[in-house]
């Protein structure tokens, strides 16, 4: 599989920068601890020097999102954490003050524009009824340099009783003919309504589960999207509406047309600039991949250039 060069540390730093901006608190805290290469016991020792006593169990719960620091002592504790972890002042405190970073910031500009117009026609499409535990995208780029197929597998967890569908969003490349884009359900779901925007390369569809879930239930769905149209592409990206425990993007290229300068990137929103993360090297079977844990709300992707 893909070999990652020495820019991995830079990529981890860039990811921490994004998490400190978007949250959630537990993901930013865990990334900051990893960036400093601290065990929880070492972190406790540093905090004690700052006059703060926190158990290892509490630190573990905080970084995994099981509980949050209580209001009685959180101000002093968070300030000490920011100092020990060498992150900007108030960065963790600001995230902690948010009621639900994913719910507040995870809409990815869905209220307006072509995407908003389509979502308005699908009641419930903006609701956060499901958490994505794991997402895997496998993309094929053909000899014409077009991303013709994407196979997506999701493991989701219900936030409420009765959750029974997943809404997907698709942004075609420039020149995309939405009438030729096809979706096929593969496992544990069937295709429901599919809406195509009349003037923009944007598609929204629903995948109906074969049964309704109860709160806390997990479910696996798999589907494939075919798009033989569009101009040559130079990236593949995935938008994260709520935090995902694990995201895996893999792009495989036709051996007759291989790219150069493959790298991962992140964006905090659809209109935000790209932040280059890690250089990626093609494997022997002409593929690169990006694996992300505790993904912040926003966009993660793989980009490349074509030889001249």
Labels describing this entry:
308 residues; 6-stranded mixed beta sheet; 5-stranded antiparallel beta sheet; 434 Repressor (Amino-terminal Domain); 36% strand; disordered N terminus; 14 strands; Immunoglobulin-like; 2 domains
Blueprint (SSEs and pairs):
Elements: E1 3-4, H1 8-22, H2 25-35, H3 40-49, H4 56-64, H5 74-85, H6 91-97, H7 101-105, H8 113-119, E2 130-141, E3 147-158, E4 165-171, E5 182-187, E6 189-196, E7 202-209, E8 218-226, E9 235-240, E10 244-253, E11 260-267, E12 275-281, E13 287-295, E14 298-305
Parallel strand pairs: 2-10
Antiparallel strand pairs: 1-12, 2-3, 3-8, 4-7, 5-8, 6-7, 9-14, 10-13, 11-12, 11-14
Care to count the β-strands? 14
Proportion of residues in β-strands: 35-45%
* Fraction of residues in helix: 10-25%
CATH class of the largest domain: Mainly Beta
Stretches with pLDDT under 50, minimum 5 residues = 1-8, 99-108
Number of spatially distinct domains: 2
Short summary:
By secondary structure, this protein is α+β, with helices and mostly antiparallel strands. The protein has eight helices and 14 strands.
